Amino acid sequence: MAFSSSPVLLHSVAAAIMVWAHSQLGKSAIDIVVETQYGGHYQFLTILGLVASLCTMGVALLVDLFPSILVLRSLKRAMLMICMPVEAVIVSVYWTLLLLFPSLILQKDVVTEPTSSHDGPPLARTPLSLDLAMHVVPGLSLVMDFLVFEKKYSQELVKLAVPVVLTCGGMYSSWAERNAKLNGGVFPYPFLTENPFETRLGIYVGACAIGYIYFRVLNALHV
């Protein structure tokens, strides 16, 4: 069976990096706290996006190996429509806050001792290699796959992006709110913990808007 090596290389390398990133979850500075909470690491949109993107790369590999099975290609395109907006939210929110307001996105490092008695716990920063594997590789690999190896979505399918994005946003916001309720009002991200429900609702809606606009722009740029 003949197939191009280029998509196989992209999909396999991206999948391998994401598998490695997922294997590092138990080694994080906040692991001792997160694993005692309801939802564990799967409270984080980053981790849910990582798993979803990994599954998409897995299906993409199956498409590469068995191109005649049309249902696999349809499944892959449906997963891309879901994962690309989610990763757009993850990348834009994470890197913006990390660079400008790190205390709003990073939890406290409960393992490392403060540098002085007047300082609180330092922020739990992620090693750069793992940071890139979690917050760049998933989104970048999806975009490269879409722009290079996939056709653009028709206008009929683009219209479906609205309910898709709203459904994903509603599911995650409900999941995050439930976890926080069971975890004593503590959200996985400090910027959610520090805001009342009305503000969080605005954040959820804004995140959905980011994902939808990103998808529309990306599809419009596709030639």
TrEMBL record:
<dbReference type="GO" id="GO:0016020">
    <property type="term" value="C:membrane"/>
</dbReference>
<feature type="transmembrane region" description="Helical">
    <location>
        <begin position="132"/>
        <end position="150"/>
    </location>
</feature>
<keyword id="KW-1133">Transmembrane helix</keyword>
<dbReference type="GO" id="GO:0012505">
    <property type="term" value="C:endomembrane system"/>
</dbReference>
<feature type="transmembrane region" description="Helical">
    <location>
        <begin position="201"/>
        <end position="221"/>
    </location>
</feature>
<keyword id="KW-0812">Transmembrane</keyword>
<dbReference type="Pfam" id="PF04750">
    <property type="entry name" value="Far-17a_AIG1"/>
</dbReference>
<protein>
    <recommendedName>
        <fullName>FAR-17a/AIG1-like protein</fullName>
    </recommendedName>
</protein>
<keyword id="KW-0472">Membrane</keyword>
<feature type="transmembrane region" description="Helical">
    <location>
        <begin position="44"/>
        <end position="66"/>
    </location>
</feature>
<feature type="transmembrane region" description="Helical">
    <location>
        <begin position="78"/>
        <end position="101"/>
    </location>
</feature>
<dbReference type="InterPro" id="IPR006838">
    <property type="entry name" value="ADTRP_AIG1"/>
</dbReference>
<feature type="transmembrane region" description="Helical">
    <location>
        <begin position="157"/>
        <end position="175"/>
    </location>
</feature>
